[in-house]
Structure formats: structure tokens, C-alpha cells
Amino acid sequence: MVSSLTRNTSSFLASHQFVMTSGTIGALILGVLILLLVEKEVMRAVVRSLPASTRRVFDVAAMPLLLTFAIVVIERFRALGF
Amino acid sequence: MSFRAEVEAGPPRAQIAGVELSYVAAFVAIELVGLVQPMVVAIGQALMVVALINHYVVAERDHRHPLLLALSVVCLYRLLAFTPLPSNDFTNHLVLVGAPVLLATFLALRLVGVPAGPVILQRKSMGIQMAIALSGIPLSNIAYKLLKPGFVVTFSGANRSHLAAVAAAVAALVVFSGIGEELLFRVLLHNAARSRFATSALYVSTAVFGAAYLGSRSVPFVLFAVAVGAFFGWCYERTGSIIGPMMAHSIISVGVFVVWPSFAHVAHL
After folding, report:
1. Chain A residue closest in CA terms to B43
2. CA distance to partner chain B, nearest, from residue A61 (Å)
3. Looking at residues B114-125, what average pLDDT do you find?
């Protein structure tokens, strides 16, 4: 029982080429990551007395997205033969 | 009550509960629509992550919305399930999706004030926990018969994998499925739901857990996932320890993807 490995996700990933999925899903992950990081920095600049815990809320999603984006980029380079 | 006092008090509890239930309903709806077009799940859950994180930040001043943060991690898990890899390797997928989600779960648990370490190491009523863990053996057989997974790692039969590959798959299933999913769905999500819905929290965490398995495209398996989610949630609620559900979940996952597929060819002889 692994909810990330359902028939839906596995058939989607198997039926599309890596170049296509890494482009679309990678762009989606990058978009969310940039949005959250920009929001975090804007909030830090605008709200001077912003508590550290509030800033860390963005990290809950941003850190894993950054990790996944790095993995996608590394795999993309590997697929290109680097 | 004056206007200022009303603003400081925040919205009434029923209104907050309604908003949180709307997010849960949106999560279920995205998973349902995703059965027709899987990309909807990726895009929908990405939007949900942004919406939930922002809502949590805006509402954080009164510290009454831990469910929003917990739900954002679940949505992140569903988004990252679509992480593309050049080869559809079972263990790679588990690690590359599971590791970022485990990181998010630990960060969220720290933010809501539930340290993951003591929760995992908490040794309460170990006899009962072992009994809960052993329930994973029959449950794994039922899950395998209902799911018949396409991705498996077998240690016997014609397509058997190298022993190191089997060991790696088992380790990944234990860490990212057994421990990771129980920390996410029970410790983070169930605890967060309990702060709002008290004893009804079990319905919320079970609904989200069941909806996460809608992608299996099998009604009996989704009903099984709902029943197992309710059972694990109930065990966690009653015993206060997550060790039993973690071990049972690990046994189910290892059984479904490694053990029962390895014995499957024997039955056909």
C-alpha cells in the first residue's frame, strides 16, 4: 500500500516519455517552488516583525520541491548523456 | 462584542471547520477527476499546496489551523507522486518521492509542535502494538488479491530480482510507506484534525487516506484502504502509539509488492 504508486500515476509515467513528463511536471514543480520562495521573500521584506515560524511554513513545501526539482534536473542531464 | 474584539477573536469555530472540510472535499474531488485525466491531479494538487500554505500563513496568528498545514503536505505528496524518472524503477520512485515528503512531514510536525522522534520511539502497550503489527499479515494478503500490482520486486520465479534489489525495495517500503505514510496520515493529519473535530477526526483522516488511493482504479481496494485507514487511526487514537500501525503498514506494503508476488507463481504450478 503506497499511495504514490497507484495504477493512475504508474500508467501515466509509463505511457509518457521522460522528456515530456520532466518538462511538464518539472515546470509545474518549479512554478510552485518559485511562487512560494517569492512569497516568502516579499513577506519578509514587507512585514518587518514577521515571526520565524511563519517564514518556516513556506519551507515545509519549498524544501521538498527544491529537492525534487534538483532530482529532475540531474536525471534530465543524465538522460542527455552527461 | 465590539468589532475590534470580533476581529481579534477570529471567525467562529463552525466557520473554520466548514472551510477545512471544503479543502478536504476539494482534495477528494481532484483525486476523482484525476481518474479521467491524471494531469488534473498534478495541477490541482499544486494549486492546493499554494492555497493551503497561504491560508495557513494568513490564519496562523490564532494557531487554529494545523489541518491546513497537514493537508498541504498530503497534497504535496500527491503532486510529487508524478515525479518523472527516466526508468520506471520501483525503488527509485519510492525513494525519490518518499524522501522529500518525509522531509516535509518532519518540518510540518516541528511547526505544529509534535516532535517526530519521541512519537516514533514512544513505547506504549507493546503487546497490543505487536498484535496490531501482526494484523498486517492477513491484511497484506487481502490487499495483494484486491490490487494485483503491476510494479513488483520478486525474490523467486522467472523474473526474480537480485537479492540486493529486493533488500533495497523492502527498506524503501518500510521507511517511506510504513513509517512515512503513518507519520503523515496518522501523526500529522489525524492529530491536526483532532484539534478541530475531536472524536470525528477519524472520519476526516480516513477520508483523505482513502482518497489518496483512488488512483488505484479499484473500488474494492479503495474501500479496503478506507477500512485499513480507519483501523490504523482508531488504533493510534486508542493506544496513543504509532508503532503498531507503522509495522502493520510496512508488512502490508512489503507483502503486496514483494512477498505475495514472489509466491504467486507457486500457486499456479
Report:
1. A28
2. 6
3. 72
Q: Which three cell numbers stand for residue B210?
A: 482513502
Q: Could you read off the pLDDT of B132-191 as tens digits, one per residue?
A: 999 999 999 999 999 888 777 888 777 777 888 899 999 999 999 999 999 999 999 999
Measured between CA atoms, the residue of chain B closest to residue A61 is: B104
User: Count of CB atoms within 10 A of residue B147's CB?
Assistant: 21
Taking residue B113's Cβ as centre, other Cβ atoms within 10 Å add up to 10
- C-alpha grid cell for residue B197? 473535530
Q: Is B35 exposed, middle or buried (0-12, 13-18, 19+ CB in 10 A)?
A: middle
Q: Where are the beta strands (DSSP E) in chain A?
A: none
CB within 8 A of B23, min separation 6: which ones? B48, B51, B52, B67, B68, B71
Q: What type of residue is A80?
A: L
Cell 498534478 maps to which residue?
B42
Q: Do A6 and B217 touch (CB under 8 A)?
A: yes
The whole-angstrom distance between B13's CA and the closest CA on chain A is: 22
pLDDT at B269 over 50: no
SS3 call for A47: coil
| C-alpha to C-alpha distance for B125 and B132, rounded to whole angstroms | 11
pLDDT on residue B112: 87
- The DSSP symbol for B268 reads T
Q: Which 17-56 residues of chain A touch chain B by CB within 8 A?
A: 18, 21-22, 24-26, 28-29, 31-32, 35-36, 39, 43, 53-54, 56
Cα B11 → chain centroid: 30
- Beta-carbon contacts of B31 under 8 Å, excluding residues fewer than 6 positions away, are B41, B78, B211, B212, B214, B215
Nearest CA in chain A to B72: A61
ipTM over 0.85: yes
